[in-house]
Amino acid sequence: MSRHSDREPVLIAGAGIAGLCTALGLLRAGVPVRVLEQAAELREVGAAVSLAPNATRALDSLGVGEALREASNWPQRAAMKHYRTGEEMSAYAMGAEMERRWVSPYLQILRADLHTVLVDELRRLDPAALQLGARVLGLKQDGDSVSVETAAGAFSGGCLLGADGVRSAVRAALYDDGAPTFTGYVAWRGVVPVESLRNPDFTPDTAVFLGPHRTLLRYRVRGQSAVNVVAFARVDGWAEEGWSLPADPAELRANFAGWHAEAEDMIEGLCRSGAFKWGLFGRAALPRWQQGRVSLIGDAAHPMLPFLGQGAAMAIEDGVLVARALELALQKGLGVEAGLACYERQRYPRACNTVLRSDAHGLRIHQHFVDAPEGTPVPRDDFVEFDFDAATTPLDI
Ligand SMILES: Cc1cc2nc3c(=O)[nH]c(=O)nc-3n(C[C@H](O)[C@H](O)[C@H](O)COP(=O)(O)OP(=O)(O)OC[C@H]3O[C@@H](n4cnc5c(N)ncnc54)[C@H](O)[C@@H]3O)c2cc1C
Fold first, then answer.
1. What is the pTM of this model?
2. What CA–CA distances, in Å, run from 365 to 14, 211, 297, 370, 386?
3. Do 198 and 254 belong together in one domain?
4. pLDDT tens-digit readout, 107-138
5. Rounded to the nearest whole angstrom, what is the distance from the C-alpha of residue 165 to the centroid of ligand 1?
6. Packing angle, helices 17-28 and 311-331, rounded to 10
7. CATH number (domain holding residue 210)
8. 338 and 273 within one domain
9. Residue of 17, 131, 160, 361 with the most ligand 1 atoms within 8 Å of its CB, for mutation
Protein backbone atom coordinates (compact mmCIF):
# COMPACT_ATOMS: atom_id res chain seq x y z
CA MET A 1 0.00 0.00 0.00
CA SER A 2 1.33 3.46 -0.84
CA ARG A 3 2.08 5.74 2.09
CA HIS A 4 1.78 9.45 2.71
CA SER A 5 5.19 10.77 3.58
CA ASP A 6 5.20 12.79 6.82
CA ARG A 7 6.76 15.69 4.99
CA GLU A 8 4.14 15.92 2.26
CA PRO A 9 1.46 18.48 3.00
CA VAL A 10 -2.25 17.93 2.74
CA LEU A 11 -3.45 20.30 -0.01
CA ILE A 12 -6.72 22.12 0.61
CA ALA A 13 -8.45 24.01 -2.20
CA GLY A 14 -10.36 26.98 -0.75
CA ALA A 15 -9.92 29.08 2.40
CA GLY A 16 -13.62 29.21 3.28
CA ILE A 17 -15.05 27.83 6.51
CA ALA A 18 -14.50 24.16 5.56
CA GLY A 19 -10.93 24.65 4.30
CA LEU A 20 -9.79 26.74 7.27
CA CYS A 21 -11.28 24.35 9.86
CA THR A 22 -9.60 21.39 8.15
CA ALA A 23 -6.28 23.23 8.12
CA LEU A 24 -6.55 24.05 11.84
CA GLY A 25 -7.42 20.45 12.71
CA LEU A 26 -4.46 19.09 10.74
CA LEU A 27 -1.94 21.63 11.99
CA ARG A 28 -2.97 20.92 15.59
CA ALA A 29 -2.22 17.25 14.86
CA GLY A 30 1.18 18.15 13.42
CA VAL A 31 0.24 17.40 9.80
CA PRO A 32 1.53 20.08 7.37
CA VAL A 33 -1.04 21.78 5.11
CA ARG A 34 -1.13 24.10 2.13
CA VAL A 35 -4.37 26.06 1.68
CA LEU A 36 -4.82 27.22 -1.92
CA GLU A 37 -7.27 30.12 -2.14
CA GLN A 38 -8.32 31.75 -5.40
CA ALA A 39 -8.85 35.25 -3.92
CA ALA A 40 -5.86 37.58 -4.04
CA GLU A 41 -6.91 39.03 -0.69
CA LEU A 42 -9.19 37.64 1.97
CA ARG A 43 -12.48 39.48 1.94
CA GLU A 44 -15.35 37.41 3.30
CA VAL A 45 -18.74 38.56 2.04
CA GLY A 46 -22.29 37.54 2.77
CA ALA A 47 -23.62 38.93 6.01
CA ALA A 48 -23.74 36.66 9.08
CA VAL A 49 -23.99 33.06 10.14
CA SER A 50 -25.69 31.22 13.00
CA LEU A 51 -23.50 28.69 14.80
CA ALA A 52 -25.59 25.98 16.43
CA PRO A 53 -24.12 24.06 19.41
CA ASN A 54 -22.73 21.31 17.16
CA ALA A 55 -20.76 24.01 15.29
CA THR A 56 -19.48 25.87 18.37
CA ARG A 57 -18.47 22.55 19.99
CA ALA A 58 -16.44 21.65 16.90
CA LEU A 59 -14.87 25.14 16.78
CA ASP A 60 -13.94 24.84 20.47
CA SER A 61 -12.01 21.68 19.64
CA LEU A 62 -9.96 23.72 17.14
CA GLY A 63 -8.79 26.11 19.87
CA VAL A 64 -10.71 29.19 18.69
CA GLY A 65 -13.49 29.14 21.30
CA GLU A 66 -12.41 32.23 23.20
CA ALA A 67 -11.90 34.44 20.14
CA LEU A 68 -15.18 33.14 18.72
CA ARG A 69 -17.16 34.05 21.83
CA GLU A 70 -15.62 37.53 21.91
CA ALA A 71 -16.71 38.21 18.32
CA SER A 72 -20.19 36.63 18.56
CA ASN A 73 -23.66 37.46 19.81
CA TRP A 74 -25.33 35.10 22.25
CA PRO A 75 -29.03 35.20 21.33
CA GLN A 76 -31.46 34.87 24.25
CA ARG A 77 -34.79 34.07 22.62
CA ALA A 78 -36.15 33.17 19.17
CA ALA A 79 -39.66 33.52 17.77
CA MET A 80 -41.62 32.70 14.64
CA LYS A 81 -43.87 35.63 13.80
CA HIS A 82 -46.92 36.07 11.60
CA TYR A 83 -45.96 38.05 8.50
CA ARG A 84 -48.96 40.43 8.66
CA THR A 85 -49.83 40.75 12.34
CA GLY A 86 -46.34 40.29 13.82
CA GLU A 87 -47.93 37.97 16.40
CA GLU A 88 -45.54 35.40 17.92
CA MET A 89 -46.81 32.05 16.65
CA SER A 90 -44.14 30.12 18.57
CA ALA A 91 -41.06 30.97 20.62
CA TYR A 92 -38.27 29.28 22.51
CA ALA A 93 -35.49 30.24 24.91
CA MET A 94 -31.91 30.29 23.63
CA GLY A 95 -28.99 31.68 25.68
CA ALA A 96 -28.22 29.88 28.93
CA GLU A 97 -31.10 27.44 28.55
CA MET A 98 -29.80 26.16 25.20
CA GLU A 99 -26.27 26.01 26.49
CA ARG A 100 -27.43 23.98 29.51
CA ARG A 101 -29.26 21.55 27.27
CA TRP A 102 -26.62 21.20 24.57
CA VAL A 103 -23.55 21.99 26.69
CA SER A 104 -22.20 24.29 23.96
CA PRO A 105 -23.67 27.71 23.11
CA TYR A 106 -25.68 28.85 20.08
CA LEU A 107 -23.87 31.90 18.67
CA GLN A 108 -24.41 34.38 15.83
CA ILE A 109 -21.51 36.14 14.12
CA LEU A 110 -20.66 38.18 11.05
CA ARG A 111 -19.07 35.88 8.49
CA ALA A 112 -16.17 38.30 8.15
CA ASP A 113 -15.53 38.05 11.92
CA LEU A 114 -15.66 34.23 11.90
CA HIS A 115 -13.27 34.21 8.97
CA THR A 116 -10.86 36.54 10.82
CA VAL A 117 -10.91 34.27 13.91
CA LEU A 118 -10.03 31.22 11.75
CA VAL A 119 -7.39 32.95 9.58
CA ASP A 120 -5.66 34.52 12.62
CA GLU A 121 -5.36 31.08 14.22
CA LEU A 122 -4.12 29.54 10.97
CA ARG A 123 -1.43 32.21 10.63
CA ARG A 124 -0.45 31.74 14.28
CA LEU A 125 0.02 27.99 13.76
CA ASP A 126 1.77 28.28 10.39
CA PRO A 127 2.32 31.70 8.78
CA ALA A 128 3.17 30.05 5.43
CA ALA A 129 0.17 27.70 5.18
CA LEU A 130 -2.11 30.03 3.22
CA GLN A 131 -1.41 30.66 -0.47
CA LEU A 132 -3.55 33.47 -1.90
CA GLY A 133 -4.18 34.05 -5.62
CA ALA A 134 -4.01 30.27 -6.15
CA ARG A 135 -7.13 29.44 -8.13
CA VAL A 136 -7.18 25.70 -8.70
CA LEU A 137 -7.21 24.98 -12.43
CA GLY A 138 -6.58 21.25 -12.62
CA LEU A 139 -5.24 18.23 -10.77
CA LYS A 140 -3.46 14.94 -11.34
CA GLN A 141 -2.90 12.05 -8.99
CA ASP A 142 -0.93 8.82 -9.00
CA GLY A 143 -0.31 6.14 -6.38
CA ASP A 144 2.01 8.39 -4.34
CA SER A 145 0.87 11.99 -4.56
CA VAL A 146 -1.45 14.64 -5.99
CA SER A 147 -0.32 17.62 -8.02
CA VAL A 148 -2.48 20.68 -8.40
CA GLU A 149 -2.12 23.33 -11.05
CA THR A 150 -3.13 26.80 -9.82
CA ALA A 151 -2.95 30.41 -10.97
CA ALA A 152 0.01 30.78 -8.59
CA GLY A 153 1.93 27.75 -9.88
CA ALA A 154 1.95 24.01 -9.21
CA PHE A 155 1.70 22.38 -5.77
CA SER A 156 2.10 18.80 -4.77
CA GLY A 157 0.99 16.92 -1.68
CA GLY A 158 -0.06 13.60 -0.25
CA CYS A 159 -3.74 14.27 -0.80
CA LEU A 160 -6.14 17.03 -1.81
CA LEU A 161 -9.38 18.20 -0.21
CA GLY A 162 -11.74 20.21 -2.40
CA ALA A 163 -13.14 22.86 -0.02
CA ASP A 164 -13.89 25.21 -2.89
CA GLY A 165 -17.62 25.69 -2.43
CA VAL A 166 -20.71 24.96 -4.50
CA ARG A 167 -18.90 25.83 -7.77
CA SER A 168 -16.00 23.52 -6.89
CA ALA A 169 -13.28 23.06 -9.49
CA VAL A 170 -12.07 19.95 -7.63
CA ARG A 171 -15.54 18.38 -7.83
CA ALA A 172 -15.69 19.20 -11.55
CA ALA A 173 -12.28 17.58 -12.09
CA LEU A 174 -13.36 14.43 -10.22
CA TYR A 175 -16.95 13.99 -11.34
CA ASP A 176 -17.72 16.47 -14.13
CA ASP A 177 -21.32 16.70 -12.88
CA GLY A 178 -22.16 20.03 -14.51
CA ALA A 179 -23.03 23.42 -13.09
CA PRO A 180 -25.10 23.85 -9.91
CA THR A 181 -28.83 24.24 -10.50
CA PHE A 182 -31.18 26.93 -9.24
CA THR A 183 -33.18 25.73 -6.20
CA GLY A 184 -36.17 28.05 -6.66
CA TYR A 185 -35.20 30.38 -3.80
CA VAL A 186 -33.67 33.84 -3.82
CA ALA A 187 -32.27 35.57 -0.74
CA TRP A 188 -31.70 39.27 -0.14
CA ARG A 189 -29.03 39.60 2.55
CA GLY A 190 -27.48 42.52 4.34
CA VAL A 191 -26.28 43.89 7.65
CA VAL A 192 -28.31 46.87 8.80
CA PRO A 193 -27.11 49.39 11.43
CA VAL A 194 -29.64 49.24 14.26
CA GLU A 195 -29.57 53.03 14.66
CA SER A 196 -30.96 53.39 11.13
CA LEU A 197 -34.16 51.46 11.99
CA ARG A 198 -37.47 53.10 12.92
CA ASN A 199 -37.69 50.75 15.90
CA PRO A 200 -34.23 49.80 17.21
CA ASP A 201 -35.76 48.04 20.26
CA PHE A 202 -37.28 45.08 18.40
CA THR A 203 -37.61 41.82 20.34
CA PRO A 204 -36.75 39.03 20.64
CA ASP A 205 -33.17 39.21 19.37
CA THR A 206 -33.82 36.41 16.82
CA ALA A 207 -37.00 36.08 14.74
CA VAL A 208 -38.32 34.58 11.53
CA PHE A 209 -41.42 36.08 9.91
CA LEU A 210 -43.43 33.47 8.02
CA GLY A 211 -45.52 34.47 4.99
CA PRO A 212 -46.84 32.84 1.83
CA HIS A 213 -43.83 31.75 -0.29
CA ARG A 214 -41.68 34.17 1.68
CA THR A 215 -39.81 34.35 4.97
CA LEU A 216 -37.71 37.00 6.67
CA LEU A 217 -34.99 36.16 9.19
CA ARG A 218 -33.36 38.75 11.39
CA TYR A 219 -30.92 38.57 14.29
CA ARG A 220 -28.61 40.95 16.08
CA VAL A 221 -24.85 40.90 15.43
CA ARG A 222 -21.89 42.92 16.71
CA GLY A 223 -23.51 43.42 20.12
CA GLN A 224 -26.57 45.62 19.79
CA SER A 225 -25.16 47.68 16.91
CA ALA A 226 -26.34 45.81 13.81
CA VAL A 227 -28.92 43.34 12.60
CA ASN A 228 -28.40 40.62 10.03
CA VAL A 229 -31.42 40.50 7.73
CA VAL A 230 -32.15 37.76 5.19
CA ALA A 231 -35.36 37.89 3.15
CA PHE A 232 -36.22 34.73 1.19
CA ALA A 233 -38.71 34.26 -1.66
CA ARG A 234 -39.65 31.31 -3.84
CA VAL A 235 -39.53 32.30 -7.48
CA ASP A 236 -39.94 30.55 -10.84
CA GLY A 237 -36.41 30.91 -12.16
CA TRP A 238 -33.12 32.76 -12.05
CA ALA A 239 -32.55 34.72 -15.21
CA GLU A 240 -29.78 36.95 -13.90
CA GLU A 241 -26.19 36.93 -15.03
CA GLY A 242 -24.10 35.25 -12.28
CA TRP A 243 -25.53 34.36 -8.88
CA SER A 244 -25.58 37.58 -6.89
CA LEU A 245 -26.31 41.19 -7.75
CA PRO A 246 -27.10 44.45 -5.95
CA ALA A 247 -30.70 44.36 -4.68
CA ASP A 248 -33.29 46.39 -6.56
CA PRO A 249 -35.22 48.22 -3.76
CA ALA A 250 -38.47 48.31 -5.78
CA GLU A 251 -38.41 44.55 -6.30
CA LEU A 252 -37.55 43.91 -2.65
CA ARG A 253 -40.36 46.18 -1.39
CA ALA A 254 -42.86 44.61 -3.81
CA ASN A 255 -42.03 41.13 -2.52
CA PHE A 256 -42.75 42.09 1.10
CA ALA A 257 -45.53 44.68 0.61
CA GLY A 258 -48.21 44.54 3.30
CA TRP A 259 -45.96 42.79 5.85
CA HIS A 260 -45.95 43.82 9.51
CA ALA A 261 -44.30 47.16 10.40
CA GLU A 262 -41.31 45.42 12.05
CA ALA A 263 -40.65 43.33 8.92
CA GLU A 264 -41.08 46.42 6.71
CA ASP A 265 -38.59 48.28 8.91
CA MET A 266 -36.06 45.47 8.18
CA ILE A 267 -36.82 45.57 4.44
CA GLU A 268 -36.29 49.35 4.35
CA GLY A 269 -33.04 48.81 6.26
CA LEU A 270 -31.95 46.26 3.63
CA CYS A 271 -32.80 48.72 0.83
CA ARG A 272 -30.65 51.42 2.47
CA SER A 273 -27.73 49.16 3.40
CA GLY A 274 -26.66 48.07 -0.07
CA ALA A 275 -28.01 44.52 0.25
CA PHE A 276 -27.37 41.86 -2.38
CA LYS A 277 -29.82 39.50 -4.03
CA TRP A 278 -28.53 35.92 -4.22
CA GLY A 279 -29.82 33.02 -6.22
CA LEU A 280 -29.58 29.87 -4.09
CA PHE A 281 -28.01 27.06 -6.11
CA GLY A 282 -27.68 23.38 -5.24
CA ARG A 283 -26.61 20.03 -6.64
CA ALA A 284 -27.82 16.47 -6.73
CA ALA A 285 -26.00 14.27 -4.20
CA LEU A 286 -22.93 12.46 -5.50
CA PRO A 287 -22.84 8.70 -4.83
CA ARG A 288 -19.45 9.25 -3.20
CA TRP A 289 -16.95 12.04 -2.61
CA GLN A 290 -13.54 10.35 -2.65
CA GLN A 291 -11.50 9.38 -5.65
CA GLY A 292 -8.15 7.96 -4.56
CA ARG A 293 -6.17 10.71 -2.84
CA VAL A 294 -8.75 13.43 -3.48
CA SER A 295 -12.02 14.11 -1.68
CA LEU A 296 -14.56 16.89 -1.11
CA ILE A 297 -15.69 18.76 2.02
CA GLY A 298 -18.25 21.45 2.90
CA ASP A 299 -20.41 22.92 0.14
CA ALA A 300 -18.21 21.30 -2.52
CA ALA A 301 -19.41 17.90 -1.27
CA HIS A 302 -22.95 18.64 -0.04
CA PRO A 303 -24.35 22.14 -0.66
CA MET A 304 -27.58 22.68 1.26
CA LEU A 305 -30.35 25.22 1.58
CA PRO A 306 -29.89 27.52 4.58
CA PHE A 307 -33.23 26.83 6.32
CA LEU A 308 -31.81 24.78 9.19
CA GLY A 309 -28.77 27.07 9.54
CA GLN A 310 -26.48 24.04 9.21
CA GLY A 311 -24.41 24.56 6.01
CA ALA A 312 -21.45 26.15 7.76
CA ALA A 313 -21.93 23.84 10.74
CA MET A 314 -21.58 20.78 8.48
CA ALA A 315 -18.51 22.35 6.84
CA ILE A 316 -16.94 22.86 10.30
CA GLU A 317 -17.78 19.29 11.37
CA ASP A 318 -16.31 17.98 8.09
CA GLY A 319 -13.09 19.87 8.77
CA VAL A 320 -12.70 18.47 12.29
CA LEU A 321 -13.59 14.94 11.15
CA VAL A 322 -11.41 14.74 8.05
CA ALA A 323 -8.43 16.04 10.05
CA ARG A 324 -9.01 13.37 12.73
CA ALA A 325 -9.44 10.62 10.14
CA LEU A 326 -6.24 11.57 8.29
CA GLU A 327 -4.28 11.86 11.54
CA LEU A 328 -5.46 8.41 12.64
CA ALA A 329 -4.71 6.82 9.27
CA LEU A 330 -1.20 8.29 9.28
CA GLN A 331 -0.59 7.21 12.88
CA LYS A 332 -1.61 3.67 12.01
CA GLY A 333 0.46 3.71 8.82
CA LEU A 334 -2.61 3.03 6.69
CA GLY A 335 -2.10 5.88 4.22
CA VAL A 336 -4.22 8.88 3.31
CA GLU A 337 -6.67 6.96 1.13
CA ALA A 338 -7.82 4.99 4.19
CA GLY A 339 -8.18 8.27 6.09
CA LEU A 340 -10.34 9.81 3.35
CA ALA A 341 -12.49 6.67 3.20
CA CYS A 342 -12.98 6.79 6.97
CA TYR A 343 -14.01 10.48 6.77
CA GLU A 344 -16.56 9.71 4.05
CA ARG A 345 -18.08 6.74 5.91
CA GLN A 346 -18.53 8.89 8.96
CA ARG A 347 -19.80 12.07 7.26
CA TYR A 348 -21.84 10.98 4.24
CA PRO A 349 -25.05 9.87 6.02
CA ARG A 350 -25.17 12.84 8.39
CA ALA A 351 -24.42 15.48 5.75
CA CYS A 352 -26.83 14.02 3.15
CA ASN A 353 -29.56 13.72 5.75
CA THR A 354 -29.11 17.36 6.73
CA VAL A 355 -29.37 18.37 3.03
CA LEU A 356 -32.74 16.58 2.77
CA ARG A 357 -34.04 17.97 6.05
CA SER A 358 -33.05 21.51 5.04
CA ASP A 359 -35.03 21.09 1.79
CA ALA A 360 -38.07 19.79 3.66
CA HIS A 361 -37.95 22.49 6.33
CA GLY A 362 -37.64 25.18 3.64
CA LEU A 363 -40.74 23.87 1.91
CA ARG A 364 -42.69 23.67 5.17
CA ILE A 365 -41.99 27.23 6.25
CA HIS A 366 -42.59 28.73 2.81
CA GLN A 367 -45.82 26.77 2.28
CA HIS A 368 -47.28 27.31 5.75
CA PHE A 369 -49.61 30.12 4.70
CA VAL A 370 -50.23 28.67 1.24
CA ASP A 371 -51.85 25.32 1.74
CA ALA A 372 -51.71 24.35 5.43
CA PRO A 373 -55.21 23.95 6.88
CA GLU A 374 -56.23 26.56 9.46
CA GLY A 375 -54.75 25.73 12.87
CA THR A 376 -51.80 23.70 11.52
CA PRO A 377 -48.96 24.01 14.08
CA VAL A 378 -46.11 26.28 13.03
CA PRO A 379 -43.29 24.19 11.59
CA ARG A 380 -40.30 24.07 13.88
CA ASP A 381 -36.81 22.75 13.60
CA ASP A 382 -36.32 19.70 15.81
CA PHE A 383 -32.64 20.42 16.60
CA VAL A 384 -31.65 16.78 16.02
CA GLU A 385 -28.12 17.61 14.99
CA PHE A 386 -27.16 19.81 17.95
CA ASP A 387 -25.69 17.13 20.22
CA PHE A 388 -23.19 15.73 17.69
CA ASP A 389 -19.53 16.04 18.71
CA ALA A 390 -17.21 15.93 15.70
CA ALA A 391 -14.14 15.92 17.96
CA THR A 392 -15.01 12.79 19.93
CA THR A 393 -17.38 10.70 17.81
CA PRO A 394 -15.76 7.28 17.27
CA LEU A 395 -14.03 6.72 13.93
CA ASP A 396 -14.30 3.47 12.05
CA ILE A 397 -10.98 2.96 10.28
C1 LIG B 1 -28.44 33.01 2.68
C2 LIG B 1 -27.56 32.02 3.37
C3 LIG B 1 -27.56 31.96 4.76
C4 LIG B 1 -26.79 30.99 5.42
N5 LIG B 1 -26.83 30.92 6.78
C6 LIG B 1 -26.18 29.91 7.43
C7 LIG B 1 -26.28 29.79 8.86
O8 LIG B 1 -26.94 30.59 9.53
N9 LIG B 1 -25.63 28.77 9.47
C10 LIG B 1 -24.87 27.86 8.76
O11 LIG B 1 -24.31 26.92 9.38
N12 LIG B 1 -24.74 27.96 7.41
C13 LIG B 1 -25.38 28.96 6.73
N14 LIG B 1 -25.27 29.08 5.37
C15 LIG B 1 -24.43 28.10 4.63
C16 LIG B 1 -22.96 28.44 4.69
O17 LIG B 1 -22.73 29.77 4.36
C18 LIG B 1 -22.17 27.52 3.72
O19 LIG B 1 -22.63 26.19 3.85
C20 LIG B 1 -20.67 27.57 4.07
O21 LIG B 1 -20.17 28.86 3.84
C22 LIG B 1 -19.87 26.56 3.22
O23 LIG B 1 -18.50 26.73 3.47
P24 LIG B 1 -17.39 26.17 2.46
O25 LIG B 1 -16.08 26.50 3.09
O26 LIG B 1 -17.71 24.78 2.11
O27 LIG B 1 -17.60 27.00 1.13
P28 LIG B 1 -17.38 28.60 0.79
O29 LIG B 1 -17.73 29.37 2.02
O30 LIG B 1 -18.12 28.80 -0.45
O31 LIG B 1 -15.82 28.69 0.59
C32 LIG B 1 -15.20 28.26 -0.59
C33 LIG B 1 -13.82 28.91 -0.73
O34 LIG B 1 -13.17 28.35 -1.85
C35 LIG B 1 -12.63 29.38 -2.66
N36 LIG B 1 -12.57 28.86 -4.05
C37 LIG B 1 -13.60 28.65 -4.91
N38 LIG B 1 -13.15 28.13 -6.08
C39 LIG B 1 -11.81 28.00 -5.94
C40 LIG B 1 -10.79 27.49 -6.79
N41 LIG B 1 -11.04 27.03 -8.03
N42 LIG B 1 -9.51 27.48 -6.32
C43 LIG B 1 -9.22 27.94 -5.06
N44 LIG B 1 -10.15 28.44 -4.22
C45 LIG B 1 -11.44 28.45 -4.65
C46 LIG B 1 -13.58 30.54 -2.48
O47 LIG B 1 -12.99 31.80 -2.81
C48 LIG B 1 -13.89 30.42 -0.98
O49 LIG B 1 -12.93 31.07 -0.19
C50 LIG B 1 -25.99 30.07 4.67
C51 LIG B 1 -25.96 30.16 3.27
C52 LIG B 1 -26.73 31.12 2.63
C53 LIG B 1 -26.69 31.19 1.12
1. 0.96
2. 32, 8, 28, 10, 20
3. yes
4. 999 999 999 999 999 999 999 999 999 999 99
5. 5
6. 30
7. 3.30.9.30
8. no
9. 17
